[in-house]
Amino acid sequence: MNGWICNIIENQYQDFSEDSFIGGKPKIPEDFSLPYCELCGEELTFFFQVAFPFNHAWYGKSLALFYCTEHYHGDLCIPEFPDIQDLLGANIPIDFLRKYEKNFRILIFDTHNGVTNKQYVEKVTFKSLQLIENNGADSNADFLLAGAPVWIMGFDETPATINTIKSTLLLQIKEDYVFDKLQNAPAQEDVFGEPRKENFYKLFVSDRIYFWGTKDLNMPLVYVSVQAP
Q: pLDDT tens across 99-157, in order?
């Protein structure tokens, strides 16, 4: 199974030519609105986006991730779990997916339609992602595309289908990875409702994050799961 390591390139200036990157300004279709948190109404923070490469199941598509850093939102600091006893081999229903993106938002679009949204005020430090093909899973890499999931809790939670369509692992983010914030960006709220003192943001409390997608690109759907270290 083909996989890719995303090599993170530090200390770069965003020249808007990149399609895979962390932070900076998002590159999304012009008719896409910047998303807002359904729980507090604040504009969501742009964290990263990935343009899936040739030979990836989602080649030609991009995924952009936005997350609320204004408030902690209690139990919703990680994505909701569907009401399913065992995620291994499960079907993730469409009705669940339509309502669980409350304090985060996943945007899916054709990569060639992406345009830099220069109205967005960036909060996360820009870093370019260089995709390097790697046929074996490297659990030490911060970002991995496709390949095999790295389970850190000792058990497999691979869903079989999403809306009855066969699923595939799109990408995963290593546990404890944090996103450096710009110096003038507001601090992320912690579990006690206070501003964090660290100069970074956590995405889904820095658990290991798995992004699952439908293999059929006629209906590109994404389900996000996590495992805690």
A: 999 999 999 999 999 999 999 999 999 999 999 987 655 678 999 999 999 999 999 99
Whether this prediction's pTM lies above 0.90 is answered by yes
C-alpha Rg value of the chain to the nearest Å: 17
A 10 A CB-CB count for 210 gives 23
Bridge partners (DSSP) of residue 195 are 189
Q: Give the contacts of 190 (CB within 8 A, at least 6 positions apart).
A: 72, 196
d(CA 104, CA 106) in angstroms, rounded, equals: 7
Query: Other CB atoms closer than 10 Å to residue 144's CB: what's the count?
Result: 24
Euclidean distance between CA atoms 158 and 136, whole angstroms: 18
Contact call for residues 162 and 221 (beta carbons, < 8 A)? yes
Residue with the two structure tokens 């079989």: 160
- List, in order of start, the domains of the chain with CATH numbers: 3-227 (2.30.320)
* Distances in whole angstroms, Cα of residue 207 to Cα of each of 11, 28, 62, 110, 129: 25, 26, 23, 28, 20
DSSP string, 124-190: BPPEEEEEEE-SS--TT-SEEEES----SSSS----SEETTEEEEEEEEE-TT--EEBPTTSPPPB-
**Tokens for 56?**
């990836």
94 membership: H or E segment, kind and range:
helix 94-97
Three-class SS of residue 205?
Answer: helix
User: How far is it, in rounded angstroms, from Cα 79 to Cα 157?
Assistant: 14
Count Cβ neighbours within 10 Å for each residue of 46-56 and write b for 16 or more, e otherwise: bbbbbbbbeeb
The single-letter code of the amino acid at 59 is Y
